[in-house]
Design a protein that fits this description.
Elements: H1 2-17, E1 20-21, H2 22-29, H3 34-43, E2 47-48, E3 56-58, E4 70-73, E5 76-79, H4 84-94, E6 99-100, H5 101-108, H6 113-121, E7 126-129, E8 135-138, H7 142-155, H8 163-175, H9 183-192, H10 199-208
Antiparallel strand pairs: 1-3, 2-3, 4-5, 6-8, 7-8
Helix pairs in contact: 4-6, 9-10
């Protein structure tokens, strides 16, 4: 009976705070034993964060996963697919046009370069070199890979941009240079100012001026 009450107590705490770490769980259960904590967590079918080396915990019924199976609160991220490696593999394989390192980091809100290289080396993902030393991560399935590259190639067709459009984008990049600048951040900032510049135009300028090299996309490691 005591175990049932303690499980209910922990469950209510998760419902209130949503995310807990091991110290909070030990305090809630009145124990110094991590083993005891994980015994209760296992009964609750807990999930671990894919960020911070899995040190944060929650429950599936508490998590608010988005359409990609990700749930982020601040800099803490959870995935319905479990680990960062599993989630990266799923997201890339389900992507219509593959994913670059920058695109994935913007989505996951954490560094993904090393996990991506691990997946490539394990033959769980493929990698194609794009322009300006940027890599595209794709499925290892030949047919899926071919479709992803075809779609990506279509997305990369360049349109003529006016000098003023390019200048406006570059000025915004410089203004934001104290941060980790990505096309998404520039797009959000410009739209807040009422700019009509599209994300596609921003992506094009990033490619044309090798701005992606400021992100881990320009990994020199070989698969």
């Amino acid at each position: 009976m005591k175990n049932v009450c303690e499980i209910d107590q922990v469950k209510k705490l998760f419902e209130k705070k949503m995310i807990l770490d091991i110290d909070e769980l030990r305090a809630a259960l009145g124990t110094e034993s991590n083993r005891t904590v994980f015994r209760y967590l296992k009964k609750l079918n807990y999930i671990s964060s894919y960020t911070h080396a899995g040190k944060y915990y929650s429950l599936p019924e508490v998590a608010q996963f988005d359409q990609n199976g990700l749930w982020q609160r601040g800099d803490i991220g959870f995935s319905k697919y479990g680990t960062l490696l599993n989630t990266l593999a799923h997201i890339v394989n389900q992507s219509d046009a593959g994913q670059t390192n920058s695109e994935l980091e913007e989505q996951f809100k954490t560094r993904v370069q090393n996990p991506l290289l691990t997946l490539v080396n394990a033959n769980k993902l493929g990698r194609e070199k794009l322009v300006q030393k940027t890599y595209l991560y794709v499925s290892v399935d030949p047919e899926t890979r071919k479709k992803q590259l075809t779609v990506r190639d279509g997305q990369g067709k360049r349109r003529h941009l006016s000098d003023w459009t390019s200048i406006e984008i570059l000025v915004e990049v410089i203004r934001l240079s104290s941060h980790s600048v990505t096309p998404g951040i520039v797009s959000s900032s410009l739209h807040k100012k009422g700019s009509s510049i599209t994300r596609e135009e921003i992506d094009q300028v990033f490619r044309a001026y090798s701005l992606e090299k400021k992100t881990p996309d320009s990994a020199q490691s070989k698969s």
